[in-house]
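Board notes (copied after class):
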Amino acid sequence: MESIPKKKKKPTKKPGEALFIKPCQTMPVNSPSEGMLIQRCHTLPTKKTAATMLLKPCQTVSERSNKKRRVTPPEVEEEKEEHEEEVAEIKFKQGDHVDVKALLSSKARNFLVTSKGGEVVPIAVLDGKYVIVCCFYVPFDIDDPVTASCQSIEALYNELTFKGIADRVRFVVVVKIAPGFGKAEFDSFFSRLSVNCLAIPFADSKSRDKICKSFGLLTKVDDDSESPCLVVHPNEKVLKFQPDFLEQYGARSFPFSKEHFDDIQRQEKIIRNRIRSTDSPIFLEELLQCDYLSRIANENEYVPTSSLGDTVVTLYLCYNGSIMDKLQAIHKKCIKKRLKFEVILVPLPFYNHYETPSFRDRMKQDALKHSISSSWWMFPFDDKVYRTLWRLFYQFCEDQLLILPHGQCPGDLRGKEIATRYGISAYPFTKETVVNKEVRKLRSFTLQDLLKNTELGTDLENKNVLLYFDSFKCDLDGGYLYSNLMLYYHEIKAKYADSEVVFVSLHPNLGLDNSRIAAMMWPILPLEMCASVIKRITPTRWPGIVAFGSDGKILSRSAQSHLPLSTSSRSLFEDTLASEVAAVVETQIM
């Protein structure tokens, strides 16, 4: 059985006891020998012994008398201390328990300070609250990504204050100061942050650096990263440890639960579907959550949002104004052609823009440099609505156009790509419009129109025809399509009554001196006609087959995908033109 050690008695000073200095410790505050710890010795030293009792820093008497024991040099002690101060990055996970008060305090400090006025606040104010801890590397430029985090904190704080629930949340900001900077930058940062949050005092740099290191903030964040942010539930469970979630949701972040964010995503999925729908289209006033719009040129000129319900509306989500000139040019052409078209400017100050009002004013002034933009509209800034619109585009950091044709056809979230690529011909600038116009264009002529006044054209009337486009100069597919046609030609003729294959050379200048051409069992388009046919119609890829019905109208530009007949269940003369055009347009506007 292990013996219990006897409790040592506290030593007391005896008469004649000498006092010797041990430099590595300190006396209690206000003692006569402040800054020193005294060590008792039970014998008074003689002159001789006193001369030899010169102790090294932190060396005890017993160490001095024991010559075999080596004293650790001061520089090794410093390295040991630095090693002990190394802080491992913490990978917080949702549901983890965090003692947030212990995280934000230290042995010497059990309080925080307010960012406005530096009022001392006990750490206990975090009890029973949602706690948001954000780390920032200071100083930073006005266009650094850090500004998005600052703006998000302000938006959330203002929303909670408006709802009267701000007291349920505590914002704690931890600042890491860059080398060469100090309290001036610390104070400047908090002076620009409108929220009166809690902070680790400037004097406690050790705690500030330790927390930032544990959060993974070691140096200045770059353009692809954000300041780390931790959200802890009142029950001390981690809700979020994700740098950018505040930027994504801003004022809609509370109460930070997975269920809350999942619900927002479900709602936005419904919005996207309704934008693309004609059965239950979303109304403009429903999307913008406002009843009135005002002119850019005159904010006192109001119109009901619902008054734009009978026209094509473009929401110009303006990130940096990169497509403003193009949009203005398109708007002018719409007015010239008397096409209904209205633009609502939606400045997005959520990335690299610290001051929301100033950014809105700058984008507004840029628009007013062109007279056409004076007719554009704006609506009051609402962080929740603006960020919702931004999330519909998955937070793309570039200008975007959201097209709302209001029942004329489905809306489109890719208005920018459509308008800038196809121009005014794509009005009202939706994918469906582009596809329908391209299909109508391809069906505006017949095969007989391409082959008019030729004997071949007469022979092909009322027949299903496959125009086979190929070039044996490059042998693009290794002869695969040619081999299939040679193999299945007779089967095609037998399966599809009144059908024919016609070869169209993609390089008519090479002539017909080719062994493959010589072996063909089907008609060959005269070389002098190839260029004009290629100009009007080509397959979606080369080599390829374009199928025409018995009425001479085009059915498919990818009929080769229905070969070989032995493995394909689809008809060579199936009408797939619309889906093929849609696939091509999709790749062009991705």
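Comment from the instructor: The first strand starts at residue 18 and ends at 22. The two ends are 78 Å apart (CA to CA).
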